[in-house]
Amino acid sequence: MIPPGDFNVDARHFQFPSHGFELTGFFYPGRGAGLRPTCVLIHGIPGNQKNLDMAEAMTELGWNAVVWSPRGSWGNGGTYSILGMREDLAALVAYLQATDLALDWGRLVLLGYSLGGAIAIQFIHSHPELARCLVLVAPTIDFLESSLTGEYASSVSPVLAGTTPESLQKMWMAEAWERNPIDLIAEVNIPILLIAGDRDEGTPIYLAESMAAAAPNCDLVILPGADHAFSGRRLELIETVTGWLSNTVGP
């Protein structure tokens, strides 16, 4: 269980079970009393950018934030896979539901960055009742159009347990044929905020526009000059996300 701690001092470390392994997460408690809206953050591959600045900013606005990593990454046991990310997200949500934390389950939000955006879409497509809305930050929109290059796969495979560059590329292409986000988004009816940068080669503008057009209820925001990591645009990114959440979900 998550140990007790004071609000807005430090994130609370916890572990949750998933398919025979204990995975690491951090709970950032939101400022204020009573049940709080909660944002579960889902990072990309391999997870260098965890959006911890976003999590910390949310706590100041009264939101809880949860940061975690899947099997086979960042010290967690097991073998890394995209399927495993979805399974681990489901295990995390189940774990949180069983705690006595001050979580308002009517105001749960998933924030997916990069590959984490694809995972968020896939998860909510299967579990539409679990989230009030989605925030997609430079998401992987189309596994066919945004291919995992051999160079990138070779650079991240050493830190993802049980993978090779070839196995990563194979699982990436399997997602294109089985659960491609661009093919699922039309059936995701909750509000969506989709943010992309006009200098982002990983999430090009034409794909962001295609997804926004296909989604029933999506606000698209393009940040000028922003790359995939939103370098030099982090404050603007955070303000865009928190402002939208305040208007869509409430404080």
Features:
8 helices; alpha/beta; 251 residues; Rossmann fold; eight-stranded mixed beta sheet
Please give a structural write-up:
With 251 residues, the protein is α/β, with parallel strands linked by helices. The chain has one domain (12-244): Rossmann fold. 35% of the residues lie in helices and 22% in strands. The protein is built from 8 helices and 8 strands; from the N terminus they run βββαβαβαβαααβαβα. The protein has helices at residues 52-60, 82-97, 115-126, 150-156, 165-178, 181-184, 205-214, 234-248, and strands spanning 12-18, 21-28, 36-42, 64-68, 103-113, 133-137, 192-197, 218-223. It has an 8-stranded mixed sheet with strand order 1-2-4-3-5-6-7-8, with helices on both faces. Helix 2 packs across helix 3 (115-126) and helix 4 (150-156) crosses helix 5 (165-178). It is globular, with a radius of gyration of 17 Å. It starts with 11 loop residues before the first strand and ends with a helix. The model is unreliable at 1-9 (pLDDT under 50).
